[in-house]
Write a structure and sequence with these properties.
Distance between the termini: 47 Å
CATH class of the largest domain: Alpha Beta
Shape: globular
Order of helices and strands: HEHEEHEHEHEEHEEEEHEEEEHEEEHH
Low-confidence stretches: 409-417
Mean pLDDT: 93
Number of strands: 18
Helix content: 25-40%
Number of helices: 10
Radius of gyration: 22 Å
Structural class: alpha/beta
Length: 417
């Protein structure tokens, strides 16, 4: 979408009141072929790929609030594919490849910046673990480079690599293709692309119940009336347990708050994503200049999109320990996203016991980076009633069979702090 200089000046002078709508604001129809419950990144991506890959366009995406109000707008924007378990590594590598072509696919700039993702390590044991993970990445065709302490100093000069550091840095494991994406642009790009293919993106439409007859889903009840559908997909991130409960489903998921923070803007000082092996902490500099970072889970179950001061203090300590010069910066703001945590650290993209009802959730720390592949594989499952090969292991039944995908390297899990 292009605008002339005169239209840009005119809209700027009138308070941006006359820009054309990027997507429609339709009234819900009485029935659809598919309903997607949840208008976040994963839900919008699912609708886009249903239309693009499978020709299924009679689709409604139902969002209880406004687009971007959930986790898609409450994260640190980091993308990477350096996961250990084969099921996750192939999935997130597919996702990273989709990220690399997403701006062209959507005809909308999602502002991908492949600046590299660096995990620093501090002990010989952590070095051994990094070597093991690097070898696993290479076997799965994922780019990975083991770097020395001197390399870390060159890649991220702010990192304290001195012998007197509180957590001395011995080196790091780098994925050069990792980086960051503008989260708002992802929401707008997927919503616009789905809308252009005929999908109804409906905001302020809360699902209040499911219509199920003889084990078959028939539609949903909403704050704007009943809507019929042959197939329904639930993809609501941290609200998964609450929404699934309305359909009679009990999920092996706990909801926890994960806080993110941004500092006042400064000139470019950090040219890569850095993750801190001494604690659950990551940092990246945004295009606006603010340093964005997050810490560990709050440690108690919650559906609130806010955090507490103990985590604020802990994250500030991590930042100052890893990069002492950051101690002079002021925090501009912080926010909380609701992480739906699973026992093995891996997600679900699966059928449910209710025919025609599908579930996507349990993303732990990997939700944002998995957005395109989540939509791609969930759309495949809904359209074909068969799992996509890249998501065939992400079933609810894996906890009954014992075929868990134990991705502890993705971050600490509830009860494992």
């Amino acid at each position: 979408m292009r605008y002339s200089l005169s239209s840009i000046i005119r809209n700027a002078a009138t308070g941006h009141k006359h820009w054309p709508k990027v997507w429609r604001n339709p009234e819900p129809k009485k029935s659809y072929d598919v309903i997607i419950v949840g208008g976040g990144g994963h839900g919008l991506a699912t609708a886009h790929y249903l239309a693009r890959n499978h020709g299924v366009t009679n689709v409604a995406v139902l969002e209880k609030g406004y687009l971007g109000n959930g986790n898609i707008g409450r994260n640190t924007t980091i993308v990477r594919s350096n996961y250990l378990c084969p099921e996750n590594s192939q999935f997130y590598e597919h996702s990273l490849k989709l990220w690399e072509g997403l701006s062209q696919d959507l005809n909308y700039n999602v502002m991908l910046s492949q600046r590299g993702a660096l995990n620093v390590f501090h002990t010989p044991a952590q070095r051994d673990a990094a070597i093991r993970r690097g070898n696993a990445f290479s076997l799965n065709g994922i780019d990975s480079v083991l770097v020395s302490r001197e390399d870390v100093k060159k890649l991220a000069p702010l990192v304290d690599c001195s012998p007197n550091a509180r957590f001395p840095v011995l080196g790091g494991l780098l994925q050069p293709r990792g980086g960051s994406v503008r989260h708002d642009a992802v929401v707008w790009g997927f919503a616009r692309a789905a809308d252009m293919r005929g999908v109804d993106v409906i905001q302020n439409c809360e699902v209040t119940g499911f219509r199920i007859e003889k084990g078959q889903v028939r539609g949903v009840e909403t704050s704007r009336g009943a809507i019929s559908a042959r197939k329904v997909g639930i993809v609501v991130a941290g609200r998964s347990t609450l929404v699934a409960q309305m359909a009679g489903l009990k999920l092996p998921i706990e909801s926890h708050v994960l806080q993110c923070f941004v500092t006042e803007p400064v000139k470019p000082v950090l040219d890569t994503v850095v993750m801190f092996a001494a604690a659950h902490f990551s940092i990246v500099q945004s295009d606006k200049g603010g340093l964005v970072f997050n810490g560990d889970l709050d440690g108690y179950n919650s559906y609130a999109q806010r955090g507490n001061m103990s985590v604020v203090s802990g994250v500030a300590e991590c930042a100052a320990s890893l990069m002492p010069r950051l101690s002079r910066l002021r925090l501009l703001r912080h926010w909380g996203g609701i992480n739906d945590m699973t026992p093995d650290g891996s997600p679900f993209i699966t059928k449910t016991p209710v025919k025609g009802l599908f579930f996507n959730g349990g993303w732990c720390y990997g939700g944002f980076k998995g957005t395109p592949a989540s939509g791609w594989t969930f759309a495949h499952l809904i359209a074909n009633d068969e799992p996509h090969p890249f998501a065939s292991g992400f079933t609810l039944s894996r906890f009954e069979t014992g075929n868990v995908i134990n991705e502890n390297g993705a971050g600490p899990q509830p009860g494992k702090h």
